[in-house]
Amino acid sequence: MKQLEIKTNKRLLIVEGGFMYYHNGSPLKYICKGSDLTEEVAEEFSKPVKSSHGKDGFINYLYESKEIVYSPAFVTALESFISAIESKGFIWGVNKVKYPNKESYGYHDNINILDDPPGWDEKEFYEDLDKWREAESMTFNPSKCIIFEIL
After folding, report:
1. pLDDT digit string, tens, across residues 54-99
2. CA 40 distance to own-chain centroid
3. Which residues pair with 27 in a beta bridge?
4. What's the number of domains the chain is made of?
5. Closest by alpha carbon to 34, among 3, 63, 62?
6. SS in 3 state form for 78-113?
7. Of 39, 42, 78, 43, whose CA–CA distance to 60 is shortest?
8. Structural domain harbouring 121
9. Residues 144, 17 contacting (CB under 8 angstroms)
10. Paired residues of 3 in beta bridges
11. Is residue 16 scored above 90 in pLDDT?
12. 88 near 125, Cβ under 8 Å?
């Protein structure tokens, strides 16, 4: 079960692959499934700001500095929510690392692993598979997630 705590104008907990009632002793309030997250729902826990260009928007957490200057602001609350996740090193949506296909590394069913050199690049395949797994561990799939407010 993956989980991530983020702080917007509320403390939120994103959970993938399970349901929780408490987080570190604090009760949780169900907000919605990740796949049901709408602009209207995201506005309830997004911080509105004026960007350096004078436009109204929501905080872009990827550009948040130590001086608490928020620029540039995002136009939508959903973009702001996603930036809060990405600012923690996670991804909301689809894993951006492509799953390695054995066949593209020269693997086939009748391969003889004793061939010299081997008929496929096993080392590179497993290195790329490890990269995919690492990225997958940092990716939240909205259809498998639940968003809670930490009370």
Report:
1. 667 787 777 655 444 445 566 788 988 998 998 899 999 988 888 8
2. 20
3. 22
4. 1
5. 3
6. HHHHHHHHHCCCCEECCCCCCCCCHHHHCCCCCCCC
7. 78
8. 2-150
9. yes
10. 15
11. yes
12. no
Amino acid at 75: V
Task: Give the span between the Cα atoms of 113 and 132, in whole angstroms.
Answer: 24
Beta bridge partners of 10: none
Question: What is the rounded CA–CA span in Å between residue 79 and residue 39?
Answer: 9
E strands in 8-144? 11-16, 22-23, 26-33, 48-50, 56-58, 91-92, 139-140
Residues near 34 by beta carbon (within 8 Å), at least 6 away in sequence: 14, 16, 92, 140, 141, 142, 143, 144, 145, 146, 147
Q: What is the pLDDT of residues 36-61, one digit of tens each?
A: 999 999 999 887 776 666 667 787 77
Question: Model pTM?
Answer: 0.76
Interval 113-129: pLDDT, tens? 555 555 667 788 888 89
